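Retro notes - structure team

What went well: the batch runner handled both jobs without manual restarts.
What didn't: labels got mixed up in the shared folder, which is why I'm recording both outputs here explicitly, each with its sequence directly above its tokens.

Job 1
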Amino acid sequence: MSNGDQVLTVDVMENGRHTFSLREICERGECHAEFVITLVDYGILAPLDEAQEARRWQFDVLALSRLRTAQRLQRDLDLNLPGLAMSLDLLDEVQSLRREVARLNQRLRHQLGE
């Protein structure tokens, strides 16, 4: 997560907002609803519930952060949607592995008495 994402998350939480409608996530992400709908269709973003009508979708802060990351990847690397989906999945996996390594390092330090 970049510093910009952290600031955005803090801003959202300070305002007491935990979920966003399709319109609100588009406003915060500065994008069109069609783009968000396409990202949902490709599994890049996921609404919190599976409401059939897109206008009833709700997104969380993590979805907003993922939207921003998707926009940066698409802009900076000119990725198509399948490439974008794969890249985000790989980034998620790297982040998960980093957390696991940190957890294991902490356990090891504790075991060694450091």
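Job 2
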Amino acid sequence: MRSLKLGFAAASIICALSATAQAGDCIKVAAIGDGLTHDLAVIMSTHGLANIIEAKGRAGKGPVHTRCAPGTFGEECTSSQTACTSGK
């Protein structure tokens, strides 16, 4: 649960910074997830990303990019995707 909260906090900060840097109605959103195994960390980061994009009322556009590295809790993954307003 702690890692999920950390992921949402990190993604919110990244969203706030990238929203000012991107023009138009699309922003880059990212989420961090960690787990004991690689697969669990990927699931946590990609599902967290989907939840954040949906909560912002946007739709994901393009591929989801995921990078993983060893973390303090096992494996830590960061997933990112461009998200645009649903109407456009």
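One thing worth noting from job 2: Strands lie at 26-35, 58-71, 74-85.
We'll revisit the folder naming next retro.
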